[in-house]
Specification:
This protein is an alpha+beta fold. 30% of the residues lie in helices and 27% in strands. The chain is built from 10 helices and 22 strands. The protein has helices at residues 12-23, 40-43, 59-77, 96-111, 121-127, 149-162, 206-211, 243-251, 302-315, 361-378, and strands spanning 2-8, 28-31, 47-48, 89-93, 117-119, 137-141, 145-146, 166-168, 173-178, 184-188, 191-200, 215-216, 219-229, 239-242, 265-266, 269-270, 276-279, 285-292, 324-335, 341-344, 351-355, 395-396. The strands form 5 sheets. Strands 1, 2, 8, 9, 10, 11, 20 and 21 form an 8-stranded mixed sheet that branches. Strands 5-6-4-14-17-18-13-19 form an 8-stranded mixed sheet, with helices on both faces. The chain has a two-stranded antiparallel sheet with strand order 3-7. It is globular. The protein binds flavin-adenine dinucleotide.
């Protein structure tokens, strides 16, 4: 089978790239070893981060505010019910130190044209009654949204198919090569494909996929884990987080040569507690937060789940009486400098990558895919992708 562009990885990044490329008229095949959304894109919390474009939109503003617009298109214009809701978000403030930090942060973001507000706990409880009255306040982000991650990722793949793309699930890529520096040959568990151009969108597995082509793509798998309580009648309306990790990571991101920034642990030692969650349309209340380097292990770790549950119950006391019904984990694709890796791979013709979307790739993946599709289609790198250029970190392995 031959395609103009083969996209490897049926997560949000690959599905969005395939959708936008096929809309631009390219003959695309999206190749996924499992089902669409069988990686991180299917197990995440479904929180969509945006504080608006701001006065001088950078890469982060493009990825977040741009993706928000694309989610709206999918739900409202194309008619896919992905449970998208611009719910708003509240970040809980537990201490005087967090209050001072958030005060300064909100002032800085507002001055840059972003859409956030510092609420007293009384005002926060007026829009989210289940919040604990013991909190000192909350940062309110009215643009932040939520959606069902599996439905949303599959909607992009279905929309790609409707524009002519072929979606090949159950096709594990087992080998990659290039004929005479030109056509790519993609070996899969169910046969061979050839393509003029290749997009590597394999999330946390970009390392092993890159190695098939003699590339070193420095992506580290980071385990994120979650739990669910309920279902219960509607009780939580926004997406909910806590200021503890935001303050810690602003002061000390914690990265070094081999460790990405903004993890909750160094080895087994906890550095901070991170928290995010929401109530789904089915009524489950889902929360998570831990980010740990444990290789490709996706077994949830009980002690971390308990710490997270206690943290969530400090924010939403109703959770104290709701037992955890299930837990799960997935692998987030972190780059070592914390920045996304989106663009053309140096030293390989017509080979592109879209990854490094880390802990917020569900909310940033749609625009990441659109920007890459625009680059491939037009042949010119969108200026904003300079900050995500693979040339800063992707290298050819020895002997290639
Ligand atoms: C527990 C958890 C909670 C999270 N919560 C949020 C959140 O609330 N909001 C948010 O914005 N982000 C969140 N994230 C992060 C987000 O899920 C990821 O950043 C995003 O899904 C990454 O998308 P991706 O397409 O790059 O990777 P993935 O979704 O992992 O997709 C990669 C795909 O490549 C496929 N693949 C790998 N190897 C091969 C091969 N050899 N052949 C064929 N296919 C292959 C995999 O099967 C997989 O489907 C969370 C992540 C986790 C784990």
């Amino acid at each position: 089978m031959t395609a103009d562009v083969v996209v490897i990885g049926g997560g949000i990044a690959g599905a969005s790239t395939a959708y936008h490329l096929s809309r631009l008229g390219h003959d695309v095949a999206l190749v996924e070893r499992g089902e669409i959304a069988s990686g991180a894109s299917g197990v995440n919390a479904g929180a969509i981060d945006s504080i608006g474009w701001g006065h001088a939109p950078d890469l982060q503003a493009h990825l977040t505010a741009g993706s928000l617009e694309i989610f709206k298109t999918i739900q409202l214009d194309l008619g896919y019910d992905v449970e998208f809701r611009q719910s708003g978000a509240l970040q809980a403030i537990h201490t005087e130190e967090q209050l001072a930090f958030t005060h300064e942060r909100v002032a800085r973001l507002c001055a840059a044209g972003h859409c956030v507000e510092l609420l007293t706990i009384r005002d926060a409880r007026a829009i989210e009654p289940a919040l604990s009255p013991a909190l000192l306040g909350a940062m309110y982000s009215p643009l932040r949204s939520q959606a069902n991650p599996v439905k949303a990722t599959r909607a992009f793949a279905t929309a790609a198919e409707a524009s002519g793309a072929r979606v090949l699930t159950g096709h594990e890529v087992t080998g990659l090569s290039q004929r005479g520096g030109g056509t790519y040959v993609i070996d899969t568990s169910r046969g061979q494909l050839t393509a003029r151009a290749l997009v590597l969108a394999a999330g946390a597995w970009c390392g092993p996929i890159g190695r098939m082509l003699g590339l070193h793509i420095p992506i580290v798998p980071v385990r994120g884990q979650m739990w669910a309580a309920g279902p219960v009648p509607p009780a939580v309306f926004q997406t909910i987080s806590s200021a503890e990790s935001a303050m810690q990571w602003t002061r000390s991101p914690g990265n070094d040569r081999d460790t990405p920034p903004q993890l909750t642990h160094r080895g087994d030692t906890r550095l901070t507690r991170h928290l995010y969650g929401r109530q789904t349309r089915e009524g489950e209340i889902i929360f998570g937060g831990d980010r740990q380097l444990v290789g490709y292990d996706t077994t949830p770790e009980g002690a971390g789940i308990e710490v997270n549950h206690a943290h969530a119950a400090d924010v939403l006391p109703l959770l104290r009486s709701l037992p955890i019904r299930r837990t799960w984990a997935g692998l987030m694709p972190f780059s070592l400098d914390g920045r996304p890796i989106i663009g053309r791979i140096p030293g390989r013709e017509n080979c592109y990558v879209v990854t490094g979307l880390a802990s917020s790739g569900f909310g940033r993946g749609p625009m990441a895919g659109k920007l890459l599709a625009d680059f491939i289609h037009g042949g010119h790198r969108p200026d904003v992708l300079a900050a995500a250029d693979p040339a800063r970190c992707v290298t050819l392995s020895e002997g290639h």
